[in-house]
Amino acid sequence: MSGFLASLDPRRVQWGAAWYAMHSRILRTKPVESMLEGTGATTAHGTKLAQVLTTVDLISLGVGSCVGTGMYVVSGLVAKEMAGPGVIVSFIIAAVASILSGVCYAEFGVRVPKTTGSAYTYSYVTVGEFVAFFIGWNLILEYLIGTAAGASALSSMFDSLANHTISRWMVDSVGTLNGLGKGEESYPDLLALLIAIIVTVIVALGVKNSVGFNNVLNVLNLAVWVFIMIAGLFFINGKYWAEGQFLPHGWSGVLQGAATCFYAFIGFDIIATTGEEAKNPNTSIPYAITASLVICLTAYVSVSVILTLMVPYYAIDTESPLMEMFVAHGFYAAKFVVAIGSVAGLTVSLLGSLFPMPRVIYAMAGDGLLFRFLAHVSSYTETPVVACIVSGFLASLLSLLVSLRDLIEMMSIGTLLAYTLVSVCVLLLRYQPESDIDGFVKFLSQEHTKKKEGILADCEKEACSPVSEGEEFSGPATNTCGAKNLPSLGDNEMLIGKSDKSTYNVNHPNYGTVDMTTGIEADESENIYLIKLKKLIGPRYYTMRIRLGLPSKMDRPTAATGHTVTICVMLLFILMFIFCSFIIFGSDYISGQSWWAILLVVLMVLLISILVFVILQQPENPKKLPYMAPCLPFVPAFAMLVNIYLMLKLSTITWIRFAVWCFVGVLIYFGYGIWNSTLEISAREEALHQSTYQRYDVDDPFSVEEGFSYATEGESQENWGGPAEDKGFYYQQMSDAKANSRTSSKAKSKSKHKQNSEALIANDELDYSPE
Length: 771
Description:
This protein is mainly α. Among the domains are: 51-430 and 651-682, Amino acid/polyamine transporter I; 527-650, no CATH class. It is built from 31 helices and no strands. It has helices at residues 2-7, 15-26, 33-36, 55-83, 87-111, 119-126, 129-161, 165-173, 190-204, 207-232, 250-261, 281-310, 321-327, 333-354, 356-366, 385-401, 404-409, 413-429, 446-451, 454-464, 491-496, 528-537, 540-548, 559-585, 587-591, 595-616, 634-648, 652-676, 678-696, 713-720, 724-768. Helix 5 (87-111) crosses helix 18, helix 7 (129-161) crosses helix 28 and helix 24 packs parallel to helix 27. Residues 37-46, 438-525, 698-757 and 759-771 have low confidence and may be disordered. Residues 627-677 form the Cationic amino acid transporter C-terminal domain. InterPro entries: AA/rel_permease1, CAT_C.
């Protein structure tokens, strides 16, 4: 016991080694080759997820998860209380802000295809383990709250259609619960519990069944939207937009409404969780994300136009605006048609929240960051059935006990944080050198490369080289030495012929660095926006680039430039957080035109612009992907600014609950995940293997007869206490002494054996000599 307590003495703890070990653990990345080769798709139980989803299925999932609440609730709420008919402009602004995060998600989906876990897996491959766990933990919060809120909203919809008889029966028969939510009395919502259980069963039955159910509901929702468009044309009146009524609250109301409308576009990240179940995720994910956002924008703008032209903005019903706008014109039958669409939209939104949650839990449990039994995949349904059951149980419990208003307030903070971190990751990775992007470029670690020397390296070079210089890469080459790093395309290969697009796929080691269609390096192909800019500016384009210090086409990122971008991005994140906080909480001083407030805002805007310009001066990585976020670094930077602003607009109680959730997640990670991670177990096994190898594979063994002895304490202090030069001289003396002792011992042994043999020969001659 005393020895254990002595080991805890701070003076005996090696703080440098402990910090390095912790730092290396929380920043370790998951190698992408396991996912590219398909090994990452197999769980510990040997069952893969079914790859059955097409691009249309992914678009349907994305649209369904967004349109439900946005079209039937948000449009009327923003139009009446914030923007009036200007809600149309609010939706357009919110769509642009959402597309900024969407393109960052799409690029991450192309960088790491065939993955489950959305931003969690992307961050694990590219940034580090702790950041990935933090993002995954908050995505679970988003989907959990969204599922419970969807079930509660459906329960409220059925209750309103039944003239509130369900809620009255609950209060009379079951009673009320005091203290839930914000302290008001509320009844346990048994109908929401039943709805959550039914949807959980549908999701657990199989991805094709749940997506088929989702597609049917989307078709029904589409039919109701077409009905609203056609029927509403007979009741529109242009006077509701005339005489300054289009922007009754000015542009401030439009911007405030845009912040609320942004939440109507949240949900497209469900597409990024289906990479392992998509047939062709490399192209389906970016197309589905973009198409779903465009479809949602079209639906929201068209519905808002009909709504604000049928009813004055001040007379819109906030609870059910689309149903009541037909009632105001005496078209009562349309109310029930829209009610069917509302039920279908809320159901598909509920399904869109519950569908990705088990997949994120499955991905985290498969990596060992959560309990591994959650990664079990049913061989019958080919879905993570245990994660589905746990997700449905937690969502059902929340929908039963927590009110809908409190659930809605907690729904968006996890999503906005995930969007922000994805934008940060894209901004970082595009400016890092290839050797520093561990996840998807460095297929062989530097430590393993250093061990390959001499004859082994030559053997690998001969075994791995192609038969002919013009031979194209068509799959894993035969490698007798066991090397992982296959050769890249040489210059002669590029000159001889083009790459075959059918054989040059994501498994190729040069995927992304060479154009698939032309066979030339990625830096030779220019961005379409850059070409337009050249035509606009003319011959002064190159002069302007030189004067601004912008990198040329041939410049490549280095470790120094990558470090510069990392520092600038971190400072940019902190400065944006301070800027948005001051804009929100110091708005009174800014509107009052206080000189110090205006000066502070101008100073922060100037610093943000300088940081973005410094990032722009650094060379980008030439890696070419099928889909890349345009206009770097402006698109990710603006996405960061919008997401941080919307996060800070949330209430204080929401931040407190979010902090509690994050604290629980940190306890789980440092108490379980960091020690049971797949990477941690692999590192332990490798260390054990290396120690065993070093124990039994000794290059120069020695014997006790060589006169080897450990130095005494005084000798060790004397020999190790001098400067480096004395230590080097001492090592040389010791090595010379050992060499001399071994030479002398070998000579003595040789002479001794020679004397013994001569003595034996002499004895034999005496025995057999004739007398």
